[in-house]
Design goal:
16 strands, alpha+beta, about 525 residues, 3-stranded antiparallel sheet
């Protein structure tokens, strides 16, 4: 061993032969210990170095603990003394409160609703089946009942998986997702994430786990302009929440993060629709498996639910009675009505959660609307004869409804030369106008001329070309095969209205052919004569 002393420090060189050498360099205070090492031998030198390392580790540990305690103190202060006004019950309810719904005389058939920017049906947690709650927790946050708003274990596992080269998986808790949904915090920044953590812990401080679940269940996005479990149950299965079974609950819970991938109602082609149904089946099974792992379903329930398909049955939200809803809304906006409802501003009706029952009879309203539409279309045919509709009126559709009117595009012809038929496309649905319908249409065209309906039919069939757009009423529709039987019609330029009164009570109101905009039944001025 030889020592190399410098004014700035000390080097120790240990030569073990065979080109193997260890150099220890000491500077500052360590240089003094290095000289002690040279003077006193290796035993004392190791003790001195260990003593120095021990002090350094202790100082580092104290500094680290101080830093951690400081961060925890800041978090504690923000959670317990920070601004939580956006999470107060009044603020949350204002965002997720229920729309006002309008019903027929039977108190069951909904005419429409008054809402702000999204359909909502607020459902208390006590009305949600236990398997729906368990499915949601299993799918989104299995540690929900054990954490305080954030889940450090889940975040650590997600970080380790990412560092190992895996994809970055989400570690957000149900509480964090509830905060995002309520406050609308979606920007992908570190500062937003930190604020979300604090707000999640504040939410846990302010509310019970069941209350947080209730907030989440009434806020998550479903489809179009709808939010919450009440809308999901109606949209996917045409059911009330309390009637959802295990399979339906598992699907809804699994779909909340990416509903468009599993929603067959928004697909325009048969292939994409079938793919969505297949995706829904697999997603349902993912949730069922997690529920089984948590012990929330029995083995028998697991096997039955695993094999069961997701049986979609779309419920309708879009009101075709826009003018009628507006008529009711105008009546509600009168000062004496608002005063009786303890509402100051008519805009509050959109979140008041009221149920309005009218004197309108379901069957009479349906029959009146259909009669007006059919006869206005026939009148237009009498006045103008046959003419194809403008090409821009055709749009591809995903499904059809019986007794509704649509624009279809001619794709070909069927039947025989004497009894022809016309084939139509509506997008995903396909349809056909049978010979009997074409014959009826020809007879209506012949009413002003008396030339004979056969001649009118022959002339019309010469004019109809592949690619033409026709206006039809759907008479039959198979939701499985998407095949329809259609009745030939003509989009009317003339219009009219209807109002039916029985013993002083209004039973039916038809504003016009489209039931949008101007309400001819109550606002039109009758022409002279």
């Amino acid at each position: 061993m030889r020592a190399l002393r410098r004014s700035s420090g000390l080097d120790k060189v240990h030569d073990f032969g065979h080109n193997f050498r260890i150099v220890l360099r000491f500077s500052g205070p360590l240089a003094i210990w290095g000289r002690d090492l040279e003077r006193d031998g290796m035993g004392l030198s190791v003790k001195g170095f260990a003593k120095t390392a021990g002090w350094s580790a202790a100082i580092g540990l104290v500094a680290a603990l101080s830093g951690v305690l400081g961060v925890l103190a800041v978090i504690y202060g923000l959670v317990y003394f920070g601004d939580d006004s956006g999470l107060r019950k009044s603020a949350i309810v204002a965002r997720i409160n229920e729309e006002t719904n309008i019903y027929m005389l039977d108190e069951q058939t909904q005419i429409g609703s008054i809402f702000a920017n999204a359909h909502r049906r607020y459902v208390p947690i006590d009305e949600v089946p236990a398997h729906m709650i368990n499915a949601l927790v299993a799918a989104e946050d299995k540690n929900f009942y054990d954490h305080v708003g954030v889940d450090p274990v889940a975040m650590f596992k997600a970080g380790v998986q990412y560092l190992k080269g895996g994809r970055m998986r989400g570690a957000s808790t149900l509480t964090q997702q509830t905060v995002r949904n309520i406050l609308g915090w979606w920007e992908p920044t570190v500062s937003r994430k930190f604020r979300e953590w604090i707000a999640a812990m504040q939410l846990e401080r302010l509310y019970s786990k069941r209350e947080i679940l209730e907030f989440y269940l009434n806020q998550f996005y479903v489809s179009g302009n709808g939010n919450g479990i009440g809308i999901a149950a109606k949209y996917y299965f045409n059911k009330e929440v309390k009637d959802l079974d295990l399979v339906e609950s598992a699907f809804i819970a699994g779909s909340v993060k990416g509903p468009s991938a599993y929603d067959p109602f928004i697909k325009f082609t048969k292939e994409r629709r079938e793919k969505a149904i297949k995706n829904a089946y697999h997603r349902k099974n993912y949730v069922i498996k997690r529920m089984y792992e948590q012990g929330w379903v029995s083995e028998t329930q697991f096997k039955e639910a695993w094999d069961a398909p997701v049986k979609f049955n779309r419920g309708r939200f879009r009101s075709e009675e826009v003018a009628l809803v507006q008529l009711v809304q105008d009546q509600l906006a009168q000062k004496e009505v608002l005063k009786a409802l303890n509402i100051e501003d008519p805009r509050e009706l959109a979140a008041a959660g009221l149920k309005i029952y009218t004197t309108l009879d379901k069957d009479m309203q349906t029959s009146a609307q259909l009669a007006v539409r059919r006869n206005l279309a026939r009148l237009e045919t009498i006045l103008k004869g046959y003419k194809s509709e403008p090409q821009e009126m055709f749009t591809k559709l995903r499904s059809l409804t019986v007794n509704d009117f649509y624009f279809g595009q001619v794709t070909g012809f069927g039947g025989t030369e004497k009894e022809p038929t016309v084939k139509l496309s509506f997008g995903l649905p396909q349809g056909e106008i049978p010979y009997e319908s074409l014959m009826r249409y020809a007879k209506i065209m012949d009413l002003p001329w008396y030339k004979g309906w056969q001649k009118q039919l022959d002339t019309m069939m010469k004019d109809v070309k592949v690619g033409d757009v026709l206006y039809v009423e759907v008479k039959e529709y198979d939701v499985e095969t998407h095949e329809a039987v259609a009745e030939m019609m003509k989009r009317p330029r003339v219009n009219g209205g209807l109002i039916a009164i029985d013993k002083g009570e209004v039973r039916a109101v038809v504003s016009g052919f489209d039931t949008h905009g101007f309400n001819r039944s109550v606002s039109a001025k009758r022409q002279p004569g």
